[in-house]
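Recall that a protein's primary structure is simply its ordered list of amino acids. Everything else, from secondary elements to tertiary packing, is in principle encoded there. The following example makes that idea concrete.
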Amino acid sequence: MRAGSITEPDTTPADIYRPRPARVVRTEALTRNEKLLELELESGHPLGHLPGQFVEVSVAGFGEAPISVSSSPTRGPRFQLVVRRVGTVTAALHRLEPGDRVGIRGPFGTSFPVNRELKGRDVLFVCGGLGLVPVRSAIQYVMDHRQDYGHVFILLGARTPADRLFVDEYAQWCAPGEATLLETVDKRDAQWTGAEGVITTLIPCVRLDADRTVAVICGPPVMYRFVIVALKERGLTDENIYVSLERRMKCGVGKCGHCQINHVYVCQQGPVFRLSDIADLEEAL
């Protein structure tokens, strides 16, 4: 699907405390613990998000949880979330079926700079595990505006082959002229014939031009430091590396303090940060 470029308005809703009603359109089990929910606002309006932002999803009687939007705004008014089952609210979200209703607050937070720093540059996406969920929105956006970017590299890591996400989209992403996609797993199974090892083992396999490459990183906390070191060894600077710290969020409006890192509230000043802006922020990575 090809679509026109999006602008970057203030996407914060007028009432950040009042959920908008939305309806589940489709569900899909991606792995044992991850489920995709495709939703649409009952108003018929688009969500109004940018790649990398998140929403607060509420289920009546159970509460709400912050969930990254996993689809690009170029893909229409419907939007997709991926929910990992880890507690009461996420378990309730996993039980939803088409036609069920939820509340949506947001979108909130900063976004990947697809219309700014990434445009006209080579783009390197490095995603470990569930980190592909928010980054997929940026990958889709770049693919829908492929002529606006240089070389695109997508490096993916998963715990096991059974934990890989969005596998049916890989062929489209790595089609001729689209992107170079490499993946690895921490532990292979009997059917896996690809690479085995941590995601940093993929970085030497791509030919990067450090002067024109911007990197986007998202994954488990332990991954960040090693990936950043590996990218710096390839010549990338802090100014050309973006990270998502979406794992820290809770309320979405800077009230609960769950995401606070010293003076920074991730839900308001993030979740997407340029590395140079948080390089001296202890406990950020």
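The CA atoms of residues 57 and 280 lie 32 Å apart. The chain has two domains: 20-108, 122-244.
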